[in-house]
Amino acid sequence: MTNDGNTVQDYSLAAQAASGTLFGVTDNFDATNVTVFVDVNDNDTYDVGTDTATYIDELAAERQRVGLHPRRRAPVQADGDGALYDLIAQTAVGGTSSSQGADITTDDAGAPDDSTAVQIVFADGAGTADAAEDGKHSSRDAYEVVTATPQRRQGRGRHLRPDQRRNESQGHSGATIRYTITVSNSGSDDADAIVFVDDIPTNTAYTAGTITLNSTGKTDADDADEADYNVTNVGAVTVNVGTLSASGGSATITFDVTVD
């Protein structure tokens, strides 16, 4: 955002839903709670707690630059869905710090020249959602939904005592069952902070010290490793898997139970 005028100005900001296709993204939904924040330190990054202003206050003349960050909340959408928005800056009265001036929506272009008066003349070009010489300017951008898609695949194997092998089809008391669960991400974005939780099946008891994550043994206690049993979630194995990379990242968890 630049001020090409010859005096300090305030600017009010708004985001307006658009339509069509831009940068290969086709608009098919509208976001909610769309707000525009001023990049006060001009670092091209939205900083929570720092970029809190929702209007531009006292932007000096002669092409001073301020970055803008539209923030929006997307409803539940599919991977690849898109939303197009126009960011609109409206000229407002400047001259009072920390106070948003009133929007300037009309100019003095048709008034007689008066060398003793300050006259407002709009000289802005047309934007993506506004006309030329209307005291505002707009620019369009596209937002594409990029999602993580965690998936779980579970299998189990039974290990019987020697005296049980004649009746392997039955769930004998004392038999050990090993559960192997693979968690994967088939989406186009990384899946962060994935936590696996699995309740111990009815009529079985968890076998102490059998949790593994990617073939590495984990303790049952609430300690520095990624897993525990019956601590974070009562009666369940809990494993902090962490990040699963996009397009196929995976992790494998195993644990044993004993048939009652």
What does this entry look like structurally?
This protein is mainly β. It folds into 2 domains: 9-144, no CATH class; 150-259, Immunoglobulin-like (Sandwich), CATH 2.60.40. The protein is built from no helices and 17 strands. The strands form 5 sheets. Strands 9, 10, 12, 13, 14 and 17 form a 6-stranded antiparallel sheet that branches. A 4-stranded antiparallel sheet has the order 5-1-7-8, with no helix packed on it. It is elongated. Residues 159-170 have low confidence and may be disordered.
For the structure shown, list the relevant keywords:
6-stranded antiparallel sheet, single chain, 17 strands, 4-stranded antiparallel sheet, elongated, 260 residues, mainly beta, Immunoglobulin-like, 2 domains
Task: Describe the SSE topology.
Blueprint: E1 9-17, E2 21-22, E3 25-26, E4 32-39, E5 55-59, E6 67-73, E7 82-92, E8 136-144, E9 150-159, E10 176-185, E11 191-199, E12 204-206, E13 212-213, E14 216-217, E15 227-229, E16 236-244, E17 249-259
Antiparallel strand pairs: 1-5, 1-7, 2-3, 4-6, 7-8, 9-10, 10-17, 11-16, 12-17, 13-14, 13-17, 15-16
